Structures are given as structure tokens and as C-alpha cells.
Amino acid sequence: MTKFLSLLAIGLVLIAALAFGLQQNPTTVQRTSPFSEQRAGTDLQTIVGFGPRPAGSDAIAKTRTYIVMELEKAGLKPQFDEFDARTPRGYKHMVNIHATRPGSKPSVIAITGHYDTKVFDNIRFVGASDGGSSAAWLLEFARCTKDLKLDNTLEFIFYDGEEAVVEWTDDDSVYGSRRDVDVRVRNRSLNNLKAMILVDMIGDKNLNIKKESQSTRWLKDIIWGTALSLGYGKEFPNEEQEISDDHIPYLKAGVPSVDLIDFDYPAWHTAADTLDKVSAHSLKIVGDVVYLSLPAIDKH
Ligand SMILES: [Zn+2]
User: Minimal CA–CA distance to 278: which of 90, 95, 41?
Assistant: First the structure.
């Protein structure tokens, strides 16, 4: 009996010590998010498996069907914004996909990426990182924010027509994002956009996302600060570079915007941008960094 009581006492002391220890550690940094590397990897393989996916192709239509099906499985209600864009090769039918996760306020943080791939006449270009990684990342990011409580509403936007049809100019590029800004200006909802976060080419196994120099300072400060606190200083180096991308139309319209892009990618716009060059782990790193940055962006 005595032995039993002393064992019981030791047990209670241990439980109390454990509870006290947990209470004493309130500053523990959350180091990961519900972003699933495995699900993102499956999405990436599936999307790249559809083959080259330029605007207007059958393969991009299949990609769209897959994205919609997966968003609906996650309880979201995707909507299409369809338009005909005038390109150097005539009018092309394009479709932006939108889905929202309501916060307690109507103002919006847009999380965005493109799902088209650049058209090439002479090579088979499947865009594992350029077009594949952003689409797969955004799909898993939309799923994994199910239990994230924010004031702002999250809007996920999959852009069509990011790529130039012939050669990159202001008129032949970022068709989907230019269209989205036009629509918001026309229906007077642009002021609802608190921030825009763009991911592009984030699949590289050797992840290296420099600070895009035109992007909004406070967004870069929050995101690179989060990356550093998670131990991703190597993947998010403190160096600047300038890139034209889907965030530019929003910046021109005065919306705080940031582009997360790994442009240090030898396979860029070549037949070598294939699944063996990319890693779902890179998508997970960017997923964790953006997810854990959102509370501070929400409160800014
Ligand atoms: Zn590209």
C-alpha cells in the first residue's frame, strides 16, 4: 500500500512538472503548418502529367477540371472568370479560377499563382516548376487553411495566361492578372484588396527565393522574417532581384503585393523543366512560410 502511494505521488509530481513545463514555454514558435507535402506532391505529378498546358489547350482544360474537383472536395466553391484575350496569335480563351475562404471581414488577402505553361513550337515543355509548382502549391494551400482563423477573407486565384504567347512585353504577358485588376476596377472592389501574395516557380529542389525588388516592403519584411525564424535563411536569402510577373498589375493599381519566385533555375523555359528537377519539399517550405506569415499580414 505504501509503495503504491509513493508511486502514485511520484506519478502526480511528474504530471504536475510536465504541465508546469508546458505552461512555462508559451513563446514556442510554431515551426510547421498543416500544408501537406504529400498531397502537394500528388497534385504536382497529376498536373504535370496532363502535358504542356498553354492557354486555350485541351490539357489546360483538364488541369482546370482537376483543380475545381479538388477545391470542391475541400469544401470550397470555385468560380470561373472567363475572357477572350487579344494575343499576337489572335484571341485566346482564358479562365481565371477563384475560390474564397471567408474571414470575419470582407477585405481580402489574395493568394495567387499561374496554372498555364508557356507555348513552345519546337520542344515539349511540361513546366514542372514554371506553371506546375504554383498550381499545385495553391491547391494544397487552399485546402490547408481550413482551420486558420483570420479577420480578412482569403481569396485563392489561379491565373490563366501568365506566359507570353510570343515574347514577353507589357501587352503579351500576365493576361489573367491584368484581367483580374480590370474587373475589380470596374466593379469598384479593388479597394477591398488588402494584400496580394504571388507564388511562381517555387518547385526547384535547390530552393532559393530572393526578394523581388518591386514588391511591397512590409510584406517582404513579414515573410522573410518568418522564413528566418523557421530556419529557412538559405531558401529565402536576403538578396534582391527584379522580376516582371503577375504581381505587377496589382502594384500599378496600388495594391500591396509580393512575388515569391525562384528564378535561379537552369531548366527555366527549357524541355528540362521536368518532375526530376522539382521537389514537393520545396512546396512545403513555401507553404509553411506563407501560412505562418498570414496572421501578421492579417493584423498589419
Ligand atoms: Zn514562364
Answer: 41
